[in-house]
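Q: Please design a sequence for this.
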């Protein structure tokens, strides 16, 4: 079976990119990372792509007069590489409505909270402030509204009494690294599909796989 051609958009260290690269190394994995795009030349994730032998390109947002032309450059790079699905992984630019609409249904993101709780930035601080006892991460389709698209997969982690923001972030990140490849696999195997504003999962649904880290 032809593997799904995936592009990963990054701005920084790229640990989620690494988890996707590692998953795609497996011969039976149904997707391949065909392109990595960074808006920053100093993003650590670019070296990860280089080590994996994956084509990479820097599209520096500062070289464009506005969001529209920047997004158009990304769109062109994706089309040139014949990309079927775009994964945002720590990509720190807001995408225009035009771009999101063009790629809707083929554009996913990982967000470090259990959406719809704690949208935006500083999600771990938000979780500590709210006093929640379960926190986590979400893979969702991207829509024009920030962190509001149809949810594809979620993983939960406990919030422990002495957690600092950094400790909690690290626990969530470990879950992200497990969740993103799983969600990508599910999509690539067409075991999840978008229906309106919902993601419908196939009937091999397994609660143990969805709730990754239940607290005792
Ligand atoms: C992750 O926590 C991701 O959920 C968020 O940005 C962070 C990126 O980390 N969107 P990395 O660059 O993948 O290490």
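A: Design:
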């Amino acid at each position: 079976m032809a593997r799904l051609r995936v592009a990963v958009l990054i701005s920084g260290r790229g640990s989620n990119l690494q988890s996707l690269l590692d998953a795609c190394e497996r011969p039976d994995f149904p997707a391949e990372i065909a392109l990595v795009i960074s808006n920053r030349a100093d993003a650590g994730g670019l070296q990860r792509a280089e080590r994996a032998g994956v084509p990479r390109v820097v599209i520096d947002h500062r070289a464009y007069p506005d969001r529209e032309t920047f997004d158009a450059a990304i769109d062109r790079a994706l089309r040139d590489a014949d990309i079927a699905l775009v994964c945002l992984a720590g990509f720190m630019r807001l995408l225009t409505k035009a771009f999101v609409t063009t790629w809707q249904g083929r554009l996913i993101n990982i967000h470090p909270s259990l959406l719809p709780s704690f949208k935006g930035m500083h999600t771990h601080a938000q979780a500590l402030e709210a006093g929640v006892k379960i926190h986590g991460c979400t893979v969702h389709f991207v829509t024009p509204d920030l962190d509001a698209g149809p949810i594809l997969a979620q993983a939960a982690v406990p919030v422990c009494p002495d957690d600092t923001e950094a400790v909690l972030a690290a626990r969530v990140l470990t879950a992200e690294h497990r969740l993103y490849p799983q969600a990508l696999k599910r999509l690539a195997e067409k075991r999840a599909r978008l229906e309106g504003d919902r993601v419908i999962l196939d009937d091999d649904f397994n609660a143990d796989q969805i709730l990754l880290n239940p607290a005792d």
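Q: Thanks. Anything notable?
A: Helices lie at 15-25, 45-51, 67-80, 97-103, 123-130, 165-188, 207-210. The pocket of 5-O-phosphono-beta-D-ribofuranosylamine is lined by residues 10, 12-17, 89-90, 110-112, 173, 176 (CB under 6 Å).
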